[in-house]
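Friendly challenge for the regulars: who can give me the structure tokens for this chain first? No prize, just bragging rights.
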Amino acid sequence: MKRLKLSLAALLLMPAGLLFAGGPGPGFGPGPAPVPDIWVAAEKTYYLTRSLHQGNDVLDACAPGYHFASPWELLDVSNLTYATVPGLTVPDSGYGPPAGYNPGWLRTADEAPNCMNWSTIDAGQMGFVGFLSITELLNGNNGWAYGDYDCGDHAYVWCVSNPVTLRWPWGPR
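First reply, four minutes later:
Bragging rights claimed.
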């Protein structure tokens, strides 16, 4: 999915483009046919929390505007933007996520409850975690490694931005 990015120049030139698009006026004819509004999705961002959480403390771990992520929302991080603020970074992160063994809780929407639906730290109850791994990437996988974690253990939490749609009233682009 290509990201929709509007440059400042495009936003500044848009009114001029609309002015010369054949709008009503002398010598311009009846004007263009009405075009339906287009709704586009805003760029998705994700991050790994800076603080560690036990299995019963993950549902409220994400910042406002974000929610506890599933692996399906983060499967291809090349189509997402890592939010370095508020996200965890390491000295060599640049603008991307930390790789290496930084496991983060993930919800699975599976029938097997994770940490009793994220409500317990009882020994023997397990939850699902994932982390980005250079080894997995070099082995031809998508870069993710997954596993189960004891709910009483501490891990980071993967968060993804809530869905947002923007109204684009100028027709197809």
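The radius of gyration is 22 Å. Strands lie at 38-41, 45-48, 66-68, 81-82, 104-105, 126-132, 144-150, 156-161, 165-168. Your move, everyone else.
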